From TrEMBL:
<dbReference type="InterPro" id="IPR005754">
    <property type="entry name" value="Sortase"/>
</dbReference>
<protein>
    <submittedName>
        <fullName>Class F sortase</fullName>
    </submittedName>
</protein>
<feature type="region of interest" description="Disordered">
    <location>
        <begin position="27"/>
        <end position="47"/>
    </location>
</feature>
<dbReference type="GO" id="GO:0016787">
    <property type="term" value="F:hydrolase activity"/>
</dbReference>
<feature type="signal peptide">
    <location>
        <begin position="1"/>
        <end position="25"/>
    </location>
</feature>
<keyword id="KW-0732">Signal</keyword>
<dbReference type="InterPro" id="IPR023365">
    <property type="entry name" value="Sortase_dom-sf"/>
</dbReference>
<dbReference type="Pfam" id="PF04203">
    <property type="entry name" value="Sortase"/>
</dbReference>
<keyword id="KW-0378">Hydrolase</keyword>
<dbReference type="InterPro" id="IPR042001">
    <property type="entry name" value="Sortase_F"/>
</dbReference>
Length: 203
């Protein structure tokens, strides 16, 4: 299995990153590109083989009641990562310059904590996740990839750990990102980042 290109992650990390918090507009935080060590992950009881490329279509997180379609996101014209649209039927978005879920590397999925006048966003309870909680991603080819949470971090937007989120890893991992912390005006001061590792896959 070929490792994902580090250039793609470096490009994203050097750009102004997300993450939109879903106020009355798509608030984006500027990311400082600094070295950061990813949090430790437990070794699985048995090796889980990496999957072939297939885009995610749905995301379920039973512990916090998430069951959402997944749309594709790229880069906005200003170089920041796109965020899902502010809408009544809020959806999560997969950053298409990251690996698809189940491939080697960090697959990145973004979601709002609030969606303006529509209220709560799809990732409103993301910070409640705990180590070992299940995250289930259904892929376009029909495969279900299941991940286990390894850690949950709340970080100041000015100190967003770009390398920990986008940097190379040697196994299939997942990152879920939203906003958190104190709210100021239409934005939030922090990001909530969930780190997870592939635990099983079924066709």
């Amino acid at each position: 299995m070929t490792l994902p290109s580090r250039r793609a992650f470096a490009t994203a990390a050097m750009a102004a990153l997300l993450v939109g918090c879903g106020g009355h507009g798509a608030d984006r935080a500027t990311t400082a590109h600094r070295r950061s060590t990813p949090p430790p992950s437990p070794s699985p009881d048995k090796a889980v083989h990496a999957l072939g490329r297939s885009v995610p279509v749905t995301l379920r997180i039973p512990a916090i009641g998430v069951d959402t379609p997944v749309i594709q996101l790229g880069l906005a014209s200003d170089g920041s990562v796109q965020v899902p649209p502010i809408a009544a039927h809020d959806r999560a978005g997969w950053y298409r310059h990251s690996p698809t879920p189940g491939r080697i590397g960090p697959s990145v999925i973004l979601g709002h904590v609030t969606v303006g006048t529509y209220g709560d966003g799809v990732f409103r309870h993301l910070a409640r996740l705990r180590r070992g909680d299940r995250i289930v991603v259904r892929l376009e080819n029909g495969t279900t990839a299941e991940f286990a949470v390894t850690s949950v971090r709340t970080v100041a937007k000015a100190e967003f750990p770009a390398d920990a989120v986008y940097g190379d890893v040697d196994r299939p991992e997942l990152r879920l990102i939203t906003c958190g912390g104190s709210r100021t005006g239409d934005g939030y001061l922090d990001n909530v980042i969930v780190f997870a590792a592939l635990s099983s896959a079924t066709p």
